[in-house]
Backbone:
């Protein structure tokens, strides 16, 4: 049975990725000062905040970059530029207005983590990264809308994302699903993973 789109919690997180512009190198210092914390690594109330600086990038600047770097540079900037206003409600505090990446932007940045992890990330977060990618695709690409956005993404990153999903999930769906299940609060079936990701990859490779 496919993972439900509602009624089942995804997973808790203990870190936050904050994407900024290059002109804001002081972001870490501002947050650190406000919470009396060290700027690197920045940990606020036991939550690690990873700051990822981005800057505008053109197709000419992306030319010659390997897929790993192209996906990181173009994907994170695209996620930053396409972020949409959201209202974050916290128990015992006033609501906060923040900009959050769209599902397509999250897939772009998460695909880099899945396809090109550091050795430390592969050892500690591979299962949750795979689960995040699968859940995003499963929940937001049922009408093909996610696919449409990613095919139009800058730098041809849709192709790279398709390659990552193929290599990291479809090459061995059983192993990928086993990893996901180790991080998921609800069981996931390998057949569902294979069907969802195959459709996703095929769509990205359709011109």
Residues:
């Amino acid at each position: 049975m496919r993972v439900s789109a509602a009624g089942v919690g995804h997973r808790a997180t203990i870190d936050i990725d904050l994407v900024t512009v290059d002109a804001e190198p002081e972001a870490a210092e501002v947050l650190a000062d406000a919470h009396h914390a060290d700027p690197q690594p920045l940990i606020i109330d036991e939550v690690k905040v990873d700051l990822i600086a981005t800057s505008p990038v053109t197709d000419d600047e992306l030319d010659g970059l390997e897929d790993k770097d192209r996906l990181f540079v173009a994907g994170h900037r695209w996620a930053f530029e396409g972020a949409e206003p959201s209202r974050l409600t916290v128990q015992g505090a006033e609501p906060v207005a923040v900009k959050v990446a769209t599902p397509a932007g999250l897939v772009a940045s998460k695909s880099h983590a899945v396809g090109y992890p550091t050795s430390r990330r592969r050892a500690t977060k591979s299962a949750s990264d795979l689960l995040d990618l699968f859940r995003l695709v499963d929940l937001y690409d049922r009408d093909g809308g996610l696919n449409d956005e990613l095919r139009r993404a800058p730098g041809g990153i849709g192709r790279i994302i398709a390659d990552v999903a193929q290599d990291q999930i479809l090459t061995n769906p059983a192993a990928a699903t086993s990893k996901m299940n180790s991080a998921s609060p609800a069981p996931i079936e390998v057949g569902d993973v294979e069907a969802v990701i195959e459709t996703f990859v095929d769509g990205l490779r359709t011109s």
Summary: The beta strands are 15-21, 42-44, 47-54, 84-88, 96-100. Confidence is low (pLDDT under 50) at residues 1-8. The longest strand covers residues 47-54. The chain is about 55% helix and 15% strand.
